[in-house]
Design brief:
Strand order of the largest sheet: 3-4-5-1-7-10-9-8
Number of helices: 5
Distance between the termini: 17 Å
Shape: elongated
Order of helices and strands: EEHHEEEHEEHEEEH
Structural class: alpha+beta
Radius of gyration: 22 Å
Helix content: 25-40%
Strand content: 25-35%
Largest sheet: 8 strands, antiparallel
């Protein structure tokens, strides 16, 4: 399976930020962050500056676009149409810069301090859903029932796979489900898929690359 496109990546990193001498002047801090990373949208009004988050949009880091940066009292969320490794480097750069220039100290207070989201479009040489052929009888039953009720004769195929942790058993940040679904609007024979995972981009791709191998062993 090969990577066609990165749809969106997100990294959430929790930490407690402290500053011994007290809080800096927020308008100055906001301007400095926007200037360093060329954010085109930044908090402007008093309401923006006093809100629960400081939100920046359309920035730049290492020649890659940073779609959004959200700064909360207990962490930050960054989104970019890039590899999650780049987002990690951006966050490290931001925290190091805040420490060096504003004397912010950051300390992890949660067991699960970082959570990833990776959303990709991938393409395979053949269907990755072959291991699910045990459901062929169910597919045929659906086809027959649909023809009987709506007079529509068509073939059904496996559309997607969703794997998830039980969110009721997780008290901290909850990972998104792993999803592998046929790309909407693309004919099935193209074998193009949309996939989401609570993983780094490279981890996500390594798992997807194994799926055709799993199929071929059945």
């Amino acid at each position: 399976m090969k990577l066609v496109d990165i749809v969106m990546s997100q990294v959430t990193r929790l930490s407690q930020a402290t500053r011994p001498q007290g809080q800096p002047y927020r308008p100055h801090l906001v301007f400095a962050i926007a200037d360093r990373y060329l954010f085109q949208v930044k908090p402007e009004t008093v309401a923006d500056l006093e809100g629960l988050k400081l939100e920046f949009r359309h920035g730049l880091f290492h020649d890659q676009a940073i779609d959004s940066l959200e700064i909360y009292n207990d962490g930050i969320i960054v989104k970019s149409v890039s590899n999650t490794d780049l987002i990690d480097r951006f966050i490290d750069d931001l925290l190091t810069w805040l420490n060096r220039n504003y004397d912010y100290r950051f300390r992890e207070t949660q067991t699960v301090g970082t959570m990833y989201e990776s959303h990709l479009i991938v393409e395979a040489e053949r269907s990755v859903f072959q291991p699910l052929e045990l459901y062929t009888r169910v597919l045929r039953m659906i086809e027959e029932a649909l023809e009987g009720s709506s007079n529509l004769s068509t073939k059904f195929e496996t559309y997607g796979l969703i794997l998830s942790a039980d969110p009721t058993q997780i008290s901290s940040m909850k990972p998104i489900a792993f999803r592998l679904e046929r790309r909407e609007g693309v004919e099935f024979s193209r074998q193009r898929y949309f996939s989401s995972a609570p993983l780094k981009t490279n981890q996500h791709m390594r798992i997807l690359e194994q799926m055709p191998l799993v199929s071929s062993q059945r």
